[in-house]
């Protein structure tokens, strides 16, 4: 690990200002992703601004009837919150399907949203990777790509966004609330938060340098039945091959986001609209422009079947 | 191990002197001369309470909680398996919650209370979970065991507190001390010897006494 200095910020705007003006500075949340990457020298910050004292660890009601989740609320606390379990089940389920009990105790809401890809070549400093070292090439294209993206990828990068929680946030139309170095705040719709790789795969999201996430706002509850179906190589403690976050209403309409298939949570309006016609109809629209590799072509039928199983559960009489 | 303030002063000056020499010998890029990179020390004072004993340390900022426990406090019960959050061998309990000590910096834990396997019980006075692991043969080589036991103690506590899990059928209900609940919650602890079923027996035994 490269040497770095460390400090604890005392207010959100101060944290943003320090990171914006200090070259090589980064925010530190729980550290479970950043430290992992620092040990491999994939991330090499020279200054860490720990945000743990910022008191952003509460879940509060909003005036619009939704919830505001502080950036520092741990994954465990968020998925255990009674209001989340009752009204936003898809979110509780998605978090519980991710990582391990130990990691969820430490992982923060903001850090989870910002976790970096698990592409094996991104993690291997000996291999070319445009995301880790812009311009060096992409080892996954023509390489081992079983876990990687089938849709929305580019000639520069076919990595996926690996997180579970964000799939639920996407279905719920959450907004990411931030403060910038100059003290201004904004709310970024989750749909616009993560980027596609395009020509700049090194940039994962639309945050500006020094922009701090202060919280996530959830709109008022959607009702309906909530599902998070994750398919992985072992039953627990593994990243998704594919996942389906869905909220399905009595009349069969609803919303669906696919995880493990793209560089961002993959939700397509036309695919949502096709939900009453079944999983095939949804998948045809969600994956209309898919460009899978030989190794990951299986993800499209797998995602379709995962959704079919969710729809079947929604239709089944409740025990 | 308690480092006094005098020792801290010396090591701090030592660091500054070294970095001064580095600046003189090598052309450091303008970036590295920023307000923080050159001037601020890369060591910091950290106070931890481990198994009830307070320790005032001065540590390189890079030191993980795991390495602090093992290399600085010589509490080698906590093990390093993968050093990347993937195995659970380094599990300890911080302020009442289990975490992977390999993915946490000591400086993140200023003022925190840490419980390691050494703090749960002693050879003369075993924690009920330690005793149950012995009784049920919940290990073979024993390398993963301290992490398994710290995790197992926390898992029973998490179930008791009603923390939900992936395998829970109804999110609004309280979880039970069932086999499937405990298995799911222990998935962050890998055992290369495959002692899983005996670990489950040990946990069920302790949970049964409680319930
Ligand atoms: C073995 C293993 C298995 C895992 N399995 C899964 C899984 O199955 N599913 C899943 O979803 N995840 C999984 N994870 C990832 C885990 O969920 C993330 O590591 C965690 O959520 C990151 O949160 P953190 O607070 O520790 O982030 P950190 O590591 O502290 O930060 C991550 C990034 O966010 C930035 N950051 C942190 N806070 C803020 C803020 N407030 N504003 C702006 N930037 C900020 C940091 O600078 C850093 O770049 C796994 C991790 C490991 C190690
Ligand atoms: S897919 Fe993206 S992250 Fe993976 S090697 Fe290619 S450029 Fe790097
Ligand atoms: S050593 Fe920490 S999880 Fe493996
Ligand atoms: S007892 Fe050997 S690794 Fe678990």
TrEMBL record, chain A:
Q: Which residues cross the membrane?
A: none
- MF annotations from Gene Ontology: FAD binding; oxidoreductase activity
Limits of the FAD-binding PCMH-type domain: 1-223
One matching Pfam family is: FAD_binding_5
Q: Which InterPro entries match?
A: CO_DH_flav_C, CO_DH_flav_C_dom_sf, Diverse_Substr_Oxidored, FAD-bd_PCMH, FAD-bd_PCMH-like_sf, FAD-bd_PCMH_sub1, FAD-bd_PCMH_sub2, Mopterin_DH_FAD-bd
Q: Which spans of this chain does the record mark as coiled coil?
A: none
Keywords from the named record: FAD, Flavoprotein
Q: What is this protein called?
A: Xanthine dehydrogenase family protein subunit M
This chain's source organism reads Sphingomonas aracearum
From TrEMBL, chain B:
Q: Which superkingdom?
A: Bacteria
GO cellular component terms, alphabetically, are: periplasmic space
Q: Which GO terms describe its molecular function?
A: 2 iron, 2 sulfur cluster binding; carboxylate reductase activity; metal ion binding
* Catalytic activity field: an aldehyde + A + H2O = a carboxylate + AH2 + H(+)
What EC number(s) has UniProt assigned to this enzyme? 1.2.99.6
Q: Where is the 2Fe-2S ferredoxin-type domain?
A: 44-120
Which cell locations does it reside in? Periplasm
Q: Which UniProt keywords apply?
A: 2Fe-2S, Iron, Iron-sulfur, Metal-binding, Oxidoreductase, Periplasm, Signal
> Does the entry feature the keyword Iron-sulfur, yes or no?
yes
Describe its function: Oxidizes aldehydes to the corresponding carboxylic acids with a preference for aromatic aldehydes. It might play a role in the detoxification of aldehydes to avoid cell damage.
Instruction: Describe the protein's quaternary organization and the partners it interacts with.
Output: Heterotrimer composed of PaoA, PaoB and PaoC.
Q: Which PANTHER family match?
A: ALDEHYDE OXIDOREDUCTASE IRON-SULFUR-BINDING SUBUNIT PAOA, OXIDOREDUCTASE, IRON-SULPHUR BINDING SUBUNIT-RELATED-RELATED
Name of the molecule in the record: Aldehyde oxidoreductase iron-sulfur-binding subunit PaoA
């Amino acid at each position: 690990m490269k040497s770095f200095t460390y400090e604890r910020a005392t207010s959100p705007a101060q944290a943003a200002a320090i990171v914006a003006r200090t070259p090589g500075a980064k925010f530190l949340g729980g550290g479970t992703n950043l430290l992992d990457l620092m040990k491999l020298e994939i991330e090499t910050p020279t200054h860490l601004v720990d945000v743990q004292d910022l008191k952003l660890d509460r879940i509060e009601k909003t005036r619009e009837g939704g919830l505001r989740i502080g950036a520092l609320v741990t994954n465990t606390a968020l998925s255990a919150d009674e209001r989340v379990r009752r009204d936003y089940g898809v979110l509780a389920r998605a978090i519980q399907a991710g990582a391990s009990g130990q990691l969820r105790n430490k992982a923060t809401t903001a850090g989870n949203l910002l976790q970096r890809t698990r592409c094996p070549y991104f993690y291997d400093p000996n291999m070319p990777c445009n995301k880790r070292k812009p311009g060096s090439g992409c080892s996954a294209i023509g390489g081992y790509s079983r876990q990687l993206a089938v849709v929305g990828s580019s000639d520069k990068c076919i990595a996926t966004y690996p997180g579970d929680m964000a799939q639920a946030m996407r279905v719920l139309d959450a907004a990411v609330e931030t403060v910038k170095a100059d003290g201004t705040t904004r709310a970024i719709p989750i749909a616009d938060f993560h980027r596609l790789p395009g020509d700049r795969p090194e940039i994962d999201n639309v945050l500006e340098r020094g922009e701090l996430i202060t919280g996530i706002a959830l709109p008022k509850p959607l009702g309906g039945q909530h599902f998070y179906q994750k398919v992985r190589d072992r039953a627990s403690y593994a990243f998704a091959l594919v996942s389906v976050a869905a909220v399905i209403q009595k009349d069969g309409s609803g919303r669906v986001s696919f995880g493990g298939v793209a560089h961002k949570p993959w939700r397509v309006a036309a695919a949502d609209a096709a939900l009453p016609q079944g999983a095939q109809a949804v998948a045809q629209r969600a994956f209309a422009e898919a460009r899978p590799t030989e190794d990951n072509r299986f993800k499209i039928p797998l995602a379709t079947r995962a959704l079919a199983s969710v729809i079947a559960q929604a239709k089944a009489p409740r025990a | 191990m308690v480092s006094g303030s005098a020792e801290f002063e010396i090591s701090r000056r030592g660091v500054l002197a070294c970095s001064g020499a580095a600046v003189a010998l090598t052309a450091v890029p303008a970036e590295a001369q920023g307000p923080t990179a050159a001037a601020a020390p890369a060591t910091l004072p950290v106070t931890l309470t481990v198994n009830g004993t307070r320790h005032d340390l001065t540590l390189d900022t890079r030191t993980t909680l795991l390495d602090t426990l093992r290399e600085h406090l010589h509490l080698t019960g906590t093990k390093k398996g993968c050093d990347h959050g993937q195995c659970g061998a380094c599990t300890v309990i911080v302020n009442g919650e289990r975490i992977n000590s390999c993915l946490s910096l000591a400086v993140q834990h200023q003022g925190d209370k840490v419980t390691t396997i050494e703090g749960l019980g002693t050879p003369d006075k075993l924690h009920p979970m330690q005793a149950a692991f012995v009784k049920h043969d919940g290990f073979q080589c024993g390398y993963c065991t301290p992490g398994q036991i710290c995790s197992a103690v926390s898992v029973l506590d998490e179930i008791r507190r009603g923390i939900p899990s992936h395998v829970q059928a109804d999110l609004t209900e309280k979880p039970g001390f069932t086999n499937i609940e405990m298995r799911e919650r222990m998935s962050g602890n890998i055992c290369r010897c495959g002692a899983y079923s005996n670990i489950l027996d040990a946990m069920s035994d302790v949970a049964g006494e409680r319930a």
